[in-house]
Amino acid sequence: MDSRSHTHVTAALRLCLHALLIGLLGLVVVRTSSEDAPHTAAVVVVAALMAALYAAGPLAPSVQPGSRAGAVWLAGLGTLWAALLVLSPDALWVAFPLYFLQLHILPMRWALPAVVVTAGAAITSFVVHRQVIEPGAFIGPLIGAAVAVATVLGYDALFRESERRRELIVELVATRADLAEAERTAGTLAERERLAREIHDTLAQGLSSIQLLLRAAERSLPEDAPAAGHVRAAREAAQANLAEARSFVRALTPPDLEHGSLAAALERLCARTTAPDLTVRFAVSGTPVELPTPYEVALLRTAQSALANTVRHARAGRAEITLSFMDTSVALDVVDDGQGFDPSGAPVHERGDGGFGLPAMRARAGSLGGALSVESAPGQGTAVAVTLPLPLTLPVTEAERAA
Q: Does residue 199 carry a pLDDT above 80?
């Protein structure tokens, strides 16, 4: 039940309550008139005043549940009803709608005593007018009071439960939208990386090879050879297209790699990684070389995943990321002094971390012909190392282009 349906139900209940109270007042007037009671005129006047006061309540903006004006309005109705009880025994039936009014207008700590007093007044009126004590005189008002209290409390409980469910549904819908957005973002980034890898491994490498072959052919031809100009034009076209392909690759790389080298991206990653009592350091070993974009992406993602696991699970005080350039390979080591885990069991790092587990790191390394190793033990920290073999043909550096 949402707020709109609650409003509709409340409006319907209020209309029923209005009809019930006015109908019971009319019944009192009719029965008193038909019995030619001595106080018929007084009953009509008091009933009319009570009906007018009751009708004025919903029209007054100040008469609200829990307000002082509402309590005063309810006290006026109670006073007129008490006068009506003195004049006619049939007025005791008006107690039933009064129960609901009291439970609706007054706070519960005051509404329950008011209901008890109203039921007591109805019972007293019956006994005084009939001059006889019957079980029905007690059972009727008490059952009416119990039904009113149970109805109001039950409805409030159902409404609170429906509100909790509505809030939960709203939260679930928002969470589903966030998850969908996260999945779209992750899919977009994955596709960008795939396209960058495909362009680099196919078009860029092919154009680079064509350029080198044309350069060799140009050097082997005499300067006045008729084909020399065509070879030079073809080499320049291949070089221009290679530069364009590399610009596409750069545009498709992760944002952290757009503004510098892999080492700079890893250093920024360490600088922005924060956790209580955790210090993250970065170091480079060996002579840095320009790596293909898929290598940089794989190493950066592995570092992000391993460092995220350290922050979430390791409770470490120190973590170090080392990027090592060797003759035939490049390695990335992420070491922490945290609580560690048993690699032979179900690693803590792989439990509910949203896909940043060791299998994803192994898959990245394996896709480039590399390997991932994990060394850890409970209470002895964790060391994650990924090693990738350097490709036989590395991207052309600026110095090579100048040469």
A: no
Per residue in 314-329, pLDDT (tens digit) is 888 899 999 999 989 9
Six token digits for residue 122: 């109805």
Strands 382-389 and 329-336: antiparallel
What letter does residue 350 receive in the DSSP assignment? Answer: G
Q: What is the pLDDT of residue 250?
A: 64
* Beta-ladder partners of 284: 323
What pLDDT is recorded for position 237?
82
Which two structure tokens, joined as six digits, stand for 282?
A: 């970065």
3-state secondary structure string across the chain: CCHHHHHHHHHHHHHHHHHHHHHHHHHHHHHHHHCCCCCHHHHHHHHHHHHHHHHHHHHCCCCCCCCHHHHHHHHHHHHHHHHHHHHCHHHHHHHHHHHHHHHHHCCHHHHHHHHHHHHHHHHHHHHHHHCCCCHHHHHHHHHHHHHHHHHHHHHHHHHHHHHHHHHHHHHHHHHHHHHHHHHHHHHHHHHHHHHHHHHHHHHHHHHHHHHHHHHHHHHHCCCCCCCHHHHHHHHHHHHHHHHHHHHHHHHHCCHHHCCCCHHHHHHHHHHHCCCCCCEEEEEEECCCCCCCHHHHHHHHHHHHHHHHHHHHHHCCCEEEEEEEECCCEEEEEEEECCCCCCCCCCCHHHCCCCCCCHHHHHHHHHHCCCEEEEEECCCCCEEEEEEEECCCCCCCCHHHHHC
- Rounded Cα distance between 331 and 329, Å, is 7
3-state secondary structure of 327: coil
Burial of 276 (0-12, 13-18, 19+ CB in 10 A): exposed
| Residues 394, 200: Cα–Cα separation, whole Å | 11
How does pLDDT run across 81-101, given as a tens digit for each residue?
Answer: 888 888 888 888 888 888 888
In the numeric block, the tokens 């392909």 are attached to 245
Alpha carbons 313 and 352: distance in angstroms, whole number = 11
What mean pLDDT is predicted for residues 41-45? 86
Nearest CA to 91 out of 31, 18, 15 is that of 31
Please state, in angstroms and rounded to a whole number, the distance separating the CA atoms of residues 291 and 24. 90
Phi and psi of 297, rounded to 5°?
-65, -45
Closest C-alpha among 340, 296, 348 to residue 319: 340
Q: Which residues pair with 318 in a beta bridge?
A: 279
